[in-house]
Amino acid sequence: MIWLDTLVQGLLLGGLYALFAAGLSLVFGIMRLVNLAHGDLIVLGAYLILGIGTATGLNPFLAALLALPVMFALGMALQAGLLNRVLGEDILPPLLVTFGLSVVIQNGLLTAFSADSRKLPLGPVEAASVPLGPVTIGTMPLLTFGSAILVILALNWLFYRTALGRAFRATSDDPVTAQLMGIRPQRIFAVATGIALVVATIAALYLGARANFDPSIGPARLLYAFEAVIIGGLGSLWGTLAGGLVIGVAQAFGAALNPEWQILAGHIAFVLVLLLRPRGLFPRALD
Amino acid sequence: MAILSLQGVSKSFGALKVTDEVSFALEKGEALGIIGPNGAGKSTLFNLITGNLRPDAGQVLLDGRDVTGESPMQRCASGLGRSFQIPQPFGHLSVYENLLVAARFGGRLSAAEAPAHCMGILDRTGLASLADRPAGALPLLNRKRLELARAMATRPRVILLDEIAGGLTDGECVELVATIRSIHAEGTAILWIEHVLHALTSVVTRLMVLNFGRMLMIGAPDQVMAAPEVREIYLGIEA
Asked: Do A169 and B52 touch (CB under 8 A)?
């Protein structure tokens, strides 16, 4: 029964990783941009929620709701003002710029909030749990997991059922031809990054609720996110969810064997998937 | 008044002049053909018209308005549609979605108007039964049809066709020409680059010859084809 419990805990943790990864996957899928600052933007989102909560006295869930439009606007401005300038044939400039952005965000947060670790105060819900058959599940991990599924469902709906989503996919296929169809790629990219930061803010809420955070933890979140995207197969949102779950389950089993093995087990699972399925679990059919 | 006109348009790639002071006017609803040997600068001319390339000198006017400084996306919104010589479908979208993108953005139709508009075009271009297929999986003829259909979906007043009949069988070519004639009959102006002359001359009323980036001559198709300098270019290449 302990194994079943470990599996369930792993899946729930995987939901959090899928939330980390969804925004990264979205941006990569649309504009082939690897945003090395994605982890730091999640941490920035957590501080924003904390800041709004402290200033207004609202609980973190409501504070996160207020943070969503702020982060959307930040994403649009970031893309329009900075990232659109470096997108092109060469993949190196965007990597350098987002790496620089990562350093700037970390140091900015360090100056503004110090290196002390913080946590989003959720109150009683933190310790609440629901019995589910033979296992007991924490309410917050369950909410995290449910949110991850909802986010992936919503992004899929956006991608495959709306005019904006068709423009995303058309631009991803061929930005030059998309312009001849009346699409302005720069604007499409800005909206995409805005949406990616909305998802990052949802991830930030659960990150800050689950454990302590400080300005330096962004790059490690980026690493989990990146592994989830690669495991799932580039360009597949459901694949990204599956990738998050694979890492979560691997980490949970690693930790069950020996607490020191938690992180390592996730990375080993990543390497194993790459060895067996180099294009990920759900590669796109046409490429 | 002319729907599209070029005034002294020039473009060089390094020392090579690919477009050399080209000037002409396409009247509203007119069909004009462009011929010339490979490397004459025909596709470059289209890129200058759509805004994918900026000319070194000269102006491009759409409906009398100077659009030389405008982006391809703005020119599309002003009524300029284009099909590519090598079909460029959005491969991960279905055939129908390719048209929807064009209709919603370039054609500025609402979510309520676009589906009927697109279904009508699918019927006219013979793609209706393939609507849900991924565009990337289509064979050549259907890719060419999709190029035409997608350009039509942007509701253009001028449509640029780049060797759309090339590589097709005679039967396929006849079908495609029928569709192009019907677009022309609705009042859409057509500018058409083509090597398949019989297809071209069955639609266009004027023919323009490009050679080394220069406009050699423009006029009625039979006169142009009878001109000694044109015969020389074609015989020189094909003999």
From this structure: no
Which CATH architecture is the domain A2-276 placed in?
A: Orthogonal Bundle (1.10)
Whether residues A178 and B93 touch (CB distance < 8 A) is answered with no
In order, the DSSP letters of B159-170 are EEEESTTTT--H
Using the predicted structure, report yes or no on whether residue B140 has a pLDDT greater than 90: no
Residues of A within 8 A of B50 (CB-CB) are: 180
Specify the length of chain A in residues. 287
Domain ranges in chain B are: 2-79+156-238, 90-155
CB atoms within 10 A of CB A174: 17
A165 alpha carbon, distance to own chain's centre:
19
Return the CATH number of the domain spanning residue range B2-79+156-238: 3.40.50.300
- Report the residue of chain B nearest A159, measured CA to CA: B93
pLDDT, one tens digit per residue, over A43-90 is 999 999 999 999 999 999 999 999 999 999 999 999 999 999 999 888
* A266 pLDDT higher than 60: yes
Q: Whole-model pTM?
A: 0.87
Mutation target among A181, A184, A187 for the B interface, most CBs of B within 10 A? A181
Q: Is the dihedral of CA A97, A103, A107, A109 positive or negative?
A: positive
ipTM of the complex: 0.82
Reported for A66-72, long-range contacts at CB under 8 A and 24+ positions apart, including other chains, are: A67/A201, A67/A204, A68/A198, A68/A201, A68/A202, A71/A41, A71/A45, A71/A194, A71/A197, A71/A198, A71/A200, A71/A201, A72/A194, A72/A195, A72/A197, A72/A198
Look up residue A118 and give its DSSP letter: B
